[in-house]
Amino acid sequence: MSKPVVIVEPSPDTPLVWFEIAIRGGASADPIGVEGLHRHAALLARRGAGTRDRAMLDETLDSLGAALDVGVSRDSIQLSGLALTRHLDPVVDLAADILAEPRFDEDEHARLLRETPQVLDEIRDDDSALATRWFDWLCCPGHAYGRTSLGTESSLAKLQRAAAIELWKREVVADNLVIGLAGDIDEATAARVVTRLLSRLPQTGRPAVTLAVPPSPPNGRRVILVDKSDRTQAQLRVGHLSIRYGDPDTAALAVGEAVLGGMFSSRLMQEIRVKRGWSYGAGCALRRSRLPHWFEVWMAAGIEVAGPAIALTLDLLADYAAKGPTDEEVDFAKSYLVGAMPFHVATARQRMQLAVRDAVFDLPAGFTAKLPEALGQLTAADVRRACATGIRPEAAVTVAVTTADHAQEALEAAGAGTLTVVDHDEY
Amino acid sequence: MKLVGTPARTRGINDRMTQSCQLDAECPVGRGVMARRFVLENGLRLISAIDKRAPIVALQTWFRVGSRHERPGATGMAHLFEHLMFGQTKDMPPGEFDRLVERTGGESNAATWVDWTYYRLSLPARDLPLGVRLEAERMQHLVLEHTPVESERDVVTNERRERVEDDVDGWLDEQLMAQAFTVHPYRWPTIGWMEDIRALSLPDIRTFYRTWYAPNCATIVCVGDFEERVLLDLVASHYGSIPPGELPQTASGLVEPEQTRERIVRAPKPIATDRLLVGYKAPGQDDPDWCVLEIVATLLAGCPSARLYRRLVIKSEVASSVDAQLTPFRDPSLLRLAVTAARGHTADEILGIIDQELALMTERPPQKAEVEKAKALAETDFWSALVDVDGRAEALGHYETALGDFRKVNTIAQRLAAVTADDVARVVRTYLRPERRTIVIATPESPDDESDDE
Fold first, then answer.
1. A95 in a structural domain
2. ipTM of this predicted complex?
3. What distance in Å separates residue B367's CA from the closest CA in chain A?
4. What is the CATH classification number for the domain harbouring A369?
C-alpha cells in the first residue's frame, strides 16, 4: 500500500512558507463525455469548506495575506498555498478544511457552471491558448491528454454536483496525496503541518487509477486551420505523440529538444527568427507528464509567411529525425542543460515543486535533479537514436490559428498534409 | 574624454576600489542580504548584493533610457535595442553572445518599459567574469549594420503583431495610454507604432546607441554567489576606462496637463464579449499617494475578497474577470481597471457598477480591518518579489533606475505598511473621479460595426 509522499525544503531566507498538495488523478481521469469534472470539483472545493462559505474563506485568507489556489493538470489536482510564516497555522487549517470538509455548496456549483463557458470565451479570444487547445484535441485522438481539462460546452452541461462530491471522496485520501513544503519552516513544524492536513482524511489507500494505454498515433500528416477573422499572424503548433517523461530516452531526447528548439541558439530559433525574421520566437518542447505526451513546435509567424514557415519547420523536423544533431551540437546542449540545472533548483520552492512533480509522475525520488548525471553519460549516438525514434515528422499534426481567406492556399501548399478548416469557436 | 580607473593588472585590488569604485549607499534587501551601491568615476553605478544560497548570479545592466526618451516619429527605438544588443560586436561575431552564455547553462534576456531598459544575465557563479566582459563589450562596441538591423526589425514587427495587432489586451493597453496622455511620452507604446518601427533609420539607430549606452547612464546590479572584491575588480577593469557620455536633457520637464473630462474610445474586435480598460490618472511611484493607491487597487480587485471582484464577478455575474493595476512609473501614470464582460452583459453596465462601488468607497470608507487586509497582502507580495536572485536584482534595478535610489525598495514597503483608512478615503476622493479617467472598450464584431470615438 502506498503512503502519502511528503517533501520538505526548509530555507529561512524570507518569512514565507509555500506548500503544494497534489491529488493524483487529474483531468485525464475525467469520465469520457464529462470533461471538466476534476476542474469543477477542485474549484468548487475552494469555494467554501468547514464552517466557512466562499466569502468567509476568501476574507479569512486575504486577511492573513495568504493565498490558496487550486489548479488542475492532466495528472493531478493541485492545492497551492502561500503564507507569511506567522500565519502558517491558520492557513494550514483552511487548507485542511478544503481537503477534508469542502462544502460543495449548491449555489456555487450553479455559479461555476455559468462561469466556465466564459473561460472558453477567454481562450477563444487568445490565439496562443486557442492553438494549444485545438492541438491538444487533435494531436492524438483517443489519448487521455487529448481531452480538455476545462471541458466543452456539451461536457459542461453534464457536470453534476454529486459527481464532484464523489470524485473528492474517492481521490482525496491520505495515501493519494503528495505534499510539499518549502520556505521558512523546519522539519518539526513541517511534520505537524502534514499531520493536520491528513488527520481528517480517509486512510483508505490510494485509489486505483486506470492508466489508459495511449493509442497509436494516426499515420500521415494533417493540418487544421482554425479560422479567425482579422489575423495578421498564424499561431502555429506542429507536433505528434512522443515519449513519457521518465522513459529511458528522456535525457537523450532532452538534448535533442535543446538542439532543435530549447535554446536561443537552437536550430528553430536561428532558422525562423534570426535568419528570416518570420516570428518573434520559435521553439519546441517535449511535454512533461505521467503518460507519453506531445512533442510540439510552436511559433507565431506572419500570415504572409505562414505557409513557408510550416514547410520549413517540417523540413527541419525531417532532417533532424533523419540525421540527428551533430557531435558539436550534442556537446553544446549537454553543457547547457547541465549548467542550467542550478537555476532550476536554486530556491527551496523550486526544489520542492520539482520533487512534487516527480512524485506525481511516479518517478523515482530525485529523478529530475539527477538528470545531469544521466546527461553526462550520453553519447551523440544515443541522442541521434532517440531523435530518430522520438521525432516523427511523417506523423506531424499542424494547427494554425489564422484567417482562412488569407492563409488557406499557402497552408495547403505547405506539404503539411490534408487540410481541414474549422471555425475558431467550434471547440 | 576623461579616463577613469586604473588598469587592473598594475594595481592592487584595494587601491582600485578606492580609486575607481566608491561605496555610496547600502541597505538590506531581504533577510541577511545587504545591497551596496558603488559609483565609478565615469558615473557607472554598481549595486552588489551577496546571496550564497545557490551557486548562481543574476547580473543585470539597467540603462536609464526607455520609451519616454524617444521622440514622435521614432517610437520603438529603445525597445529595438533590446533586440539589437544581442548582435555582433567588435570582438564577437553574430550569435556568439548567446552561444557563450548558453554554453555555461546561463540565460540572457532583456526588457524595455517607459523609464528603463535592462539586460539580464543569469549565470553559474563561476561565469561571472564572462558576464561582466560580455556586458562591457556590448556597451561599447555593438556593430550596427544594415542586414542584422533589418532582420531584427522584422522580428520586432512580428512581436508587435503578436502582442498588439492580434491581441485585444495589447490593443486596449495601447489605446488607453494614447488617449490618456496628450503631451507626455507615456502616450506612445514602448514597442513603438508600427509605422515608426518600419521607418527607424540606421543613422538614427547608431546615434541612439552612442547617446544612451554610456556608463553614466547605467547601473549594474549583481546579486548572488560571488566575492564583492572580485566583482569590483571585474567591473573596474572592464568598465573603468569607458568615458562617460554626454546625456541629453530628458523629457522629465514634460508635464501632462490635468485631465478635466472623461475620454472614451470604442472599437469592434473579434472577441466573444465586451472588454473594458479604465485608467484613472495617478501619481508617479515616488509620490506618497502612490502607495495608498496601491492599497486601493488591492481593495478593489487585487484579491478574491476585493470589492469590485465580489460585486462584478460573484454577486452580479456581469463580469468574468476584473483586475486592478497601478503602473510603477517615474512620472504620473494610471491606476487601471481591466474587466471582461460576462456573456450577455456590456461594458456600459459594468462601468455603472464601478461608479457605484467607487461612490460607496467614498461614502463608507474602508475600515481599519479592510485596510490591514490589503497591507498583509502587500507584505506577502514584497517578500515574494525577493525570493530569488533575479527578483532581488530586478527590484534593486527598478528602484535605482526609475526612482533614482535602490533603497526605495524598502521605502515603498514602509509606506505601504503605514497606509491608514483615512488615507484610502482621501485618495479615492482625489484620484478616482470620472473626469480623471480614460476608458477603452472593445466590443464583439458585427458586420455593421464602425469605430465610434467620442
1. yes
2. 0.94
3. 13
4. 3.30.830.10
